[in-house]
Design goal:
mainly beta, 250 residues
């Protein structure tokens, strides 16, 4: 990583850092304001002295291994940034500039389908099938839902993508879920033997890759959540975990 900056008035230092940052939401009150640094590189750009005019300093951080992707969640954030510090007698001058890092991976060799049957005894029995269990961020979820037994009146069905964020460590571990997007599947009553194809596109959703135990601080998990609502507004749902990853862009 190479660039330059200009400085006005003298000791000048520049750092490239990465850190995890618990956000100031209520569920992480015990850890509010703490930062966990996992990467730090520094270069001294100028020796102590006087700076009487604008100057430009080149810098170059070579072969920086950025193992984690940038992330901004509900209770935690992971950021990379460049920090410039000009040390002065009265007070230092500090400026930061964030960098957003993406982490790519190749598509998995094996990608099994998901098949399940769920229901309520003597009332409802449905099956669903998703042709894959691992999806890249611009992928399409292709599958079908079929009704084996329908003795309750279903008025609405939707498929949601839920992200669950786990932060902290036992016993101070917290889970927080959010619905990323929702796809309407049907708004009329199904009948026995009916099959409904599904084909929602992920490209319009604000998804991130799956994170697992990043620096032993946080993880994220994705679920497909199938929800049915009957005429009495009772909700029936079934969740299935999926894997989301980022592939190289063309």
């Amino acid at each position: 990583m190479a660039s330059h900056f200009s400085a006005l008035p003298v000791d000048v230092e520049i750092r490239f850092e990465g850190e995890g940052e618990p956000k100031t939401s209520g569920e992480l009150f015990y850890d509010r304001g703490n930062h966990y640094e996992f990467l730090s590189l520094s270069q001294e750009l100028a020796a102590p002295g006087e700076m009487r005019q604008a100057q430009t300093f080149d810098f170059n951080f070579k072969h920086v291994e950025k193992q984690c992707e940038s992330y901004q969640g509900i209770n935690v954030g992971l950021r990379y940034f460049v920090r410039v510090t000009i040390a002065r007698r009265l007070a230092d001058v500090v400026k930061e500039r964030d960098l957003w890092v993406h982490s790519y991976r190749m598509p998995p060799v094996s990608n099994n389908s998901i098949k399940m049957e769920v229901g309520i005894e003597d009332c409802l029995h449905i099956g669903f099938e998703y042709y894959k269990s691992k999806y890249h961020l611009k992928d399409v979820i292709v599958g079908k839902i079929y009704f084996l037994l329908v003795r309750i009146k279903i008025k609405h069905m939707a498929l949601s993508i839920i992200r669950r964020e786990t932060t902290g460590a036992v016993p101070n571990q917290y889970n927080k879920s959010e619905t990323i997007t929702k796809f309407e599947i049907m708004d009329v009553a199904p009948v026995r033997g009916e099959t409904i194809p599904i084909r929602p596109f992920l490209g319009c959703s604000e998804l991130t890759p799956k994170f697992r135990d990043v620096n032993k601080r946080f993880s994220t998990w994705y679920y497909l959540n199938l929800v049915l609502v009957n005429e009495e507004n009772r909700r029936y749902f079934k969740q299935q975990e999926i894997t989301v990853f980022r592939i190289p862009e063309n």
